[in-house]
Write a structure and sequence with these properties.
With 395 residues, the chain is mostly helical. It is globular and about 60 Å long.
C-alpha cells in the first residue's frame, strides 16, 4: 500500500515525537519575518523599506550563522547549542518591541546569527534515526510538515498583530520560541546513530565539500529563488486583477499541491535526481503567468510546478544526507540552510524589480528561466566533479 512506507517510518522509536515537536517549533519561526515587518510598519510607524532592511539583516545573520551553529552541533552536541540559541532568542524578543530602529536593525542581525537550528537539526536527527532505505520517505514527511508550519505561522502572526498589536505579538512569539527551544532541548534527539557515533572522527572540510555537494547547494538556492519569486508573483498577479482577497486561498492550494506531490513521491519505490526535479519545477513555473481569466485559472496553472515542490525539497536533503560523513552532517545541513536563505534573499528584489518594470506575468517566466539556468549550471558542475573523481580513481 502507498502508506506502508510512512507507517514504517512512524513506527521507529522517537520519530513521531520528533515530527510533533518539529512542526510545533517551526510555526513561531515561520512567523518571525512578518512579525518584524508589521512591528516596524505599525509599531515604529516607518515604511516597508525600513522593515525590509530589518528582515534583510536577520536573513543575512541566519545565512552566516547556520553553518557555524551546525558545526557546533557536530562537535558539542545539540543540547548546548539549543540552550545558547534559546537564551539569545529570549533576550531579543523580550527587548525588540522596545528598541529604537537602529538598535533593532543591529540586534536582528545578531538574532539571525544565533537562530535556533530547528530546521537543520531536525533533518540531521532524521538522518541519524532513520535507516538509509527509508530516509527519502522521512524527509518527504518533514517537507510536508514544513508546508503545514508555513500555512499556519505567518497567518497567525498577521491575525495576532491585528487583534493584539505588534508589542503583544512579539512578546508572545518570544515565549513560543523559548517553548520550542525547551521542547527540543528536553527531547534531545540523537544527531548520530550508534554506529555513526562509534566511528565518527573529525573530517577536514576539503574532504567532503566538493563540486558535487556545491552543485546540490546551488540547486537548493535555485529552488527557493523560484518558490519565493512565485509567491511574490502570485500576490502581484492577484492584485493587478483585483483578486487580492483570494491570495490566501491560492497560496494555500499551492501548498496543498506540494503536500500531495510529496505524499506520492514518498511512497515510490525509488527516487529521482534532485536537480532534475528542481529543473522540472523551474521549467513548469515559466508558463504560469500566461494564464488569464481570474484567480481560479491561476490555481490550475500552479498544479504542475506545485506538486514538484516537496519532492524537490526532500530529495535534495536526502542526497546531502547520503553524501556527507555523519561527523559533519550538522555543518552540511547548516550550509543547506544558508543556500535556502540566499535563494530567498535574492528572489525578493529580483522578482520585485521584474513585477514593477514588466508585470507579474514576466516574473513567473523570467524567474523560472533564471532558476533553470542555475540548475543547468549545477548539473554541469556535478557532472564535471564526477568525471574528475573518476579520472583520479583510475590514475
Amino acid at each position: 500500500m502507498a502508506i506502508d512506507p510512512y507507517r514504517r517510518v512512524l513506527a521507529l522509536p522517537g520519530v513521531r515525537m520528533l515530527f510533533m515537536v518539529a512542526v510545533v517549533a517551526r510555526i513561531p519561526m515561520t512567523a518571525t519575518g512578518i512579525a518584524l515587518t508589521l512591528h516596524v510598519v505599525n509599531g515604529l510607524h516607518l515604511g516597508f523599506a525600513q522593515a525590509g532592511l530589518v528582515g534583510a539583516a536577520n536573513t543575512i545573520g541566519v545565512a552566516v550563522g547556520s553553518p557555524v551553529i551546525g558545526r557546533f552541533v557536530d562537535r558539542r552536541g545539540l543540547r548546548p547549542v539549543m540552550a545558547v540559541t534559546t537564551i539569545v532568542q529570549l533576550v531579543f524578543w523580550t527587548l525588540a518591541p522596545w528598541l529604537p530602529y537602529g538598535a533593532l536593525l543591529v540586534s536582528a542581525f545578531i538574532c539571525g546569527l544565533f537562530c535556533m537550528p530547528v530546521w537543520g537539526a531536525v533533518r540531521q536527527c532524521l538522518g541519524a534515526m532513520i535507516p538509509p532505505e527509508s530516509t527519502r520517505t522521512a524527509f518527504v514527511m518533514d517537507s510536508m510538515l514544513t508546508e503545514v508550519s508555513y500555512m499556519i505561522g505567518p497567518a497567525l502572526a498577521v491575525a495576532a498583530v491585528t487583534m493584539f498589536g505588534s508589542l503583544a505579538t512579539m512578546t508572545g512569539l518570544g515565549v513560543a520560541l523559548v517553548g520550542a527551544g525547551v521542547a527540543i532541548f528536553s527531547l534531545n534527539p540523537p544527531t548520530r546513530s550508534h554506529d555513526e557515533e562509534a566511528g565518527a572522527e573529525p573530517v577536514a572540510r576539503r574532504a567532503w565539500l566538493r563540486g558535487g555537494l556545491v552543485a546540490l547547494f546551488g540547486g537548493v538556492a535555485a529552488l527557493t529563488f523560484v518558490l519565493t519569486a512565485t509567491e511574490l508573483a502570485i500576490v502581484a498577479t492577484l492584485r493587478s486583477s483585483g483578486d487580492t482577497a483570494w491570495s490566501g486561498l491560492v497560496i494555500g492550494l499551492w501548498c496543498g499541491y506540494s503536500m500531495f506531490g510529496g505524499f506520492v513521491y514518498g511512497a515510490l519505490s525509488r527516487g529521482t535526481s534532485p536537480l532534475l526535479l528542481i529543473g522540472g519545477l523551474c521549467a513548469l513555473t515559466v508558463p504560469v503567468g500566461l494564464v488569464g481569466g481570474g484567480w481560479w485559472w491561476l490555481c490550475l496553472a500552479l498544479i504542475p510546478s506545485g506538486v514538484l515542490c516537496a519532492p524537490a525539497m526532500s530529495s535534495i536533503v536526502d542526497a546531502i544526507n547520503k553524501v556527507v560523513p555523519a561527523a559533519v552532517r550538522g555543518e552540511a545541513m547548516g550550509l543547506h540552510g544558508t543556500a535556502l536563505t540566499v535563494g530567498i534573499a535574492v528572489a525578493a528584489p529580483v522578482a520585485g524589480a521584474i513585477v514593477d518594470n514588466a508585470g507579474p506575468s514576466w516574473a513567473f517566466a523570467s524567474c523560472g528561466v533564471i532558476g533553470l539556468l542555475a540548475v543547468l549550471a549545477a548539473m554541469t558542475l556535478a557532472r564535471s566533479s564526477r568525471a574528475r573523481a573518476l579520472a583520479l580513481s583510475q590514475a
